[in-house]
Design brief:
The protein contains 4 helices and 2 strands; from the N terminus they run H-H-H-E-E-H. The chain is mainly alpha-helical and 106 residues long. It has a domain at 2-75. It has a two-stranded antiparallel ribbon with strand order 1-2. The longest helix is centred in the N-terminal third of the chain and has 27 residues, at 8-34. The relative contact order is 0.12.
Length: 106
């Protein structure tokens, strides 16, 4: 629901920055693919850097980090303290790494 708290103007600007980044990226990657060496590396780097900068600015306007990372409620233990527990995927990865390291040690 945090999406509704962002003004229409900010959303329009965010979309404009994101589409602008994609357009600049395409506009620099096409000549880069047609250029003769060492030109393609410079065109490709310029396109990628402009894409990252423009899209990150658009996502900042949408406050995407806040929506993704700060939207979760903290876990509470029985005593009322906040519990920081990693997501299940991290626990699964940790268990897998522990099993493989134990298998290598044998």
């Amino acid at each position: 629901m945090a999406w509704l708290l962002i003004s229409k103007r900010s959303r329009r600007r965010a979309v404009a920055w994101t589409l602008g980044g994609i357009a600049i990226s395409v506009a620099t990657l096409v000549p880069g693919s047609l250029a003769v060496a060492p030109g393609p590396a410079a065109w490709t780097a310029a396109g990628f850097i402009s894409f990252v900068l423009c899209v990150s600015r658009g996502l900042k306007r949408l406050r995407a980090d806040e929506m993704v990372f700060e939207g979760r409620r903290p876990l509470r233990s029985a005593s009322g303290r906040t519990v920081t527990e990693p997501p299940a995927t991290f626990r699964r990865i940790e268990r897998t790494l522990m099993h493989t390291s134990q298998a290598r040690a044998r």
